[in-house]
TrEMBL record:
Family matches, as InterPro entries: Chromosome_partition/occlusion (IPR050336), HTH_ParB/Spo0J (IPR041468), ParB/RepB/Spo0J (IPR004437), ParB/Sulfiredoxin_sf (IPR036086), ParB_dimer_C (IPR057240), ParB_N (IPR003115)
Disordered: annotated span: 221-241
GO biological process terms, semicolon-separated: chromosome segregation; positive regulation of sporulation resulting in formation of a cellular spore
Residues of the ParB-like N-terminal domain: 38-127
Family statement: Belongs to the ParB family.
Source organism: Sphingomonas panacisoli
Function according to Swiss-Prot or TrEMBL: Involved in chromosome partition. Localize to both poles of the predivisional cell following completion of DNA replication. Binds to the DNA origin of replication.
GO molecular function annotation: DNA binding
Keywords: Chromosome partition, DNA-binding
Full protein name: ParB/RepB/Spo0J family partition protein
Length: 292
């Protein structure tokens, strides 16, 4: 376990601490910029390919564009050197709106940032502005875990949310893409999606939820019935299966990792899924009683 890669220290400071007080100052697109902010051609900036936010509301973007055309860009865009140009770390929406407003230059702050810091800041900005849908947020957390070695505990501290919140969002990625799309489009909400996780024929169930306009509680009953029927071959005697599923969710929330319980007449197994060696270390420490 001593060879496990330790998680990199996370920013955990938020955008204000990173940019300093200067980021809160109004910035005009003409005249002298405040110290630390420079004006840069719009064409010199490129979006970050892996930025957490993938959907930009066209109506909201047009409204921002009209505001920028009248008042200018009021908050600088955070960028980092990237080849001969600069890559946007935070502020892609402002950059897109500035293009629509036909601005030639925008105010920027340049910082030397590595890939992990860049992704963390982009995630923080979008979460603070509530710009990410649940699936985008879950995808971002998964990337921070798999690519940059964060644990769920570290993520919870970074974004100032509970570990159970992180775990619940990550489980959304177990749903088929078509069901995730229903969540993104607002045809089902988080409660519906969580109830459907692990259910058999989940796409059919999700379609039924949408068609009938079922409540979250109705969806839970529908998913429970489908799970019971699946585990008993339709005999209706699988009440224990719902209890096991509830126990799996409870254990997953406690340890912050996916838990699977298999059982039968002669016993069963409890499986804990981990993605990184740091997570495996954490499980071993919990089992042995060592301090985390």
């Amino acid at each position: 376990m001593s060879e496990a890669r330790k998680p990199r220290p996370s920013l955990g400071r938020g955008l204000n601490a990173l940019l300093g007080d200067i980021a809160a100052e109004p910035v005009a697109t003409t005249g002298d910029a405040p110290s630390g902010i420079r004006m840069m051609p719009v064409g010199a900036l490129t979006p970050q390919p892996g930025q957490p936010r993938r959907a930009f509301d066209d109506t909201a973007l047009e409204e921002l564009s009209q505001s920028i055309a009248t008042r200018g860009v009021l908050q600088p865009i955070l960028v980092r050197p990237h080849g001969r140009n600069y890559q946007i770390v935070a502020g892609e929406r402002r950059w897109r709106a500035a293009q629509r407003a036909r601005l030639h230059e925008v105010p920027v702050i340049v910082r030397e940032l590595d890939d992990a810091d860049t992704f963390e800041i982009a995630l923080l900005e979008n979460i603070q502005r509530r710009d990410l849908n649940a699936v985008e947020e879950a995808d971002a957390y998964k990337r921070l875990i798999t690519e940059f070695g964060h644990t769920q505990e570290a993520l919870a501290k970074l974004v100032h949310k509970s570990r159970s919140h992180i775990a619940n969002l990550l489980r959304l990625l177990d749903l088929p893409e078509s069901v995730q799309a229903l969540l993104v489009d607002g045809r089902i909400d988080m409660g519906h999606a969580r109830a459907l996780i692990g259910a058999p024929d989940v796409e059919r169930l999700a379609a039924e939820v949408v068609a009938k306009g079922l409540s979250v509680r109705d969806t839970e009953r529908l998913a429970r019935s489908a799970k019971n029927a699946d585990s008993t071959g339709g005999s209706g005697g699988g009440g224990r299966n719902a209890d096991i599923a509830a126990l799996e969710r409870q254990l997953s929330d406690v340890i912050g990792l996916g838990v699977k319980i298999s059982y039968g007449p002669k016993g069963g197994t409890l499986t804990v899924a981990y993605s990184t060696l740091d997570q495996l270390d954490m499980v071993c420490q919990r089992l042995t009683g060592e301090p985390l």
